[in-house]
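Cross-posting from the chemistry board since nobody answered there.

I work mostly on the small-molecule side, so proteins are not my area. We synthesized pyridoxal-5'-phosphate and want a rough idea of how it might sit in this target. Sequence and SMILES are below. Is it possible to get a predicted 3D structure of the two together?
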Amino acid sequence: MRYLSTRGHSERKRFCEILLEGLAPDGGLYLPETYPRLDGAALQRLREVFAQEGYAQLAFEILSLYIDDIAPDDLAAMCKKTYTAKVFGNPQIVPLRPLEPGIWLEALSNGPTLAFKDMAMQLLGNLFEYELKRRGEELNILGATSGDTGSAAEYAMRGKQGVRVFMTSPAGRMSPFQQAQMFSLQDANIFNIAVDGVFDDCQDMVKAVSNDLVFKSKYRIGTVNSINWARLLAQVVYYFAGYFQATTSNSEKVSFTVPSGNFGNVCAGHVARMMGLPIAHLVVATNENDVLDEFFKTGVYRVRGGKDTHETSSPSMDISKASNFERFVFDLLGRDAKRNKSLFADALSRAGSFDLRDDPVFPEAAARFGFLSGKSTHADRLATIRDCDQRLSCLIDTHTADGVKVAREYRQEGVPMIVLETALPIKFAQTIVEATGREPERPSKFEGIEKLPKKVVSMAADVAEIKRFIAANCA
Ligand SMILES: *Cc1c(COP(=O)(O)O)cnc(C)c1O
């Protein structure tokens, strides 16, 4: 399998070459040259693999279709080490449970940080360690977080050979639970940096360091952001696992509703569907930051300025542009890289938007690729959480609530609708209390984490200072 750039760069790369990279050299995103197609027999075999050998083996089988430069035994060992009941709190890894007639919840949030990002990030930690060791190299991951991404990255990389994590976050802006999750890590290779500023200040610092190419190469600075192909690939697996749990034969179809921000999660669903998984619809659920809902409803993709981004009670979906969206548009355009580049490199940077309203490809987003969308507001979120809690005795988090709200608009007779549960309620306790009047339950391993000693340094939003800090800790 070779990988290409969505903007047409001529180079083709293998999996391990793009594993540690971010964007392609021309600013595009990496995608496989083709999606492996599974026929009926292959899908049936995967169903049996999942039933008899479990999630880790299913992951190995699917990843093997895309990775041919890691020895199969090594890849299988990494999948086994990653997807264990110990790490994910359940032998089924992603158990499915009924919510109400026609709607199911697939739990993706029982990993170490209680959000779905663990599903991919835990595997990434093992892949990074493996590849860095093979190359005899080190990597310093520099990131900015307002919550879920940073903690998932730290829990995936803690104690790993050859990797350090420098994670900036806006001082005092994360929930106390999220702060405690991150800052209580005492591992020697994890560095928390609380920046006196807002999330954008953190992101600007990271960008400034990455744009200093001399510093970047001297200190081997890398990232683990959501455009990383390996992350997306790892997420493809749970669409298969959800489908197999909701159906008994491969003649049945299901739909998925996905609480979306950067379009990474639902893009993995798109890949699964392109491989032949019988998915009727992929429903994109957004919060008040509705760039994606606007596109699927109107054909206009209009990114927002930083100040037009709403701070909401489903904060992990607060985006101004959806960084993985380019991958889907590339497929929608019939993989016309030149056109894709003109939309993402030219139109977006010039006008902040592009318009496919009158283009013959736009109706195909729904008709051929199965995409639908909807949005949810703070009031919807509260009402949905309260209703699920009181009427259905099921407490869900704020992001999952956005999913359930939108899923209910697209329920179809005879087609199970699977809502991806992307986080547990305890991470967003304040809104849960607002909706239900009581504190969500806390898994026992998180009892009292706010009182643990914290490992964090405070810093002004100063690029020179963070460079000094990185240099000093790499010595
Ligand atoms: C990251 C995140 C999302 C959004 O996922 P994308 O891949 O960015 O679309 C939704 N819910 C939770 C809880 C998250 O952490």
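Reply from a structural biologist on the board:
Welcome over. Reading the output above for you: The longest strand covers residues 163-170. The two ends are 38 Å apart (CA to CA). Happy to explain the token format if needed.
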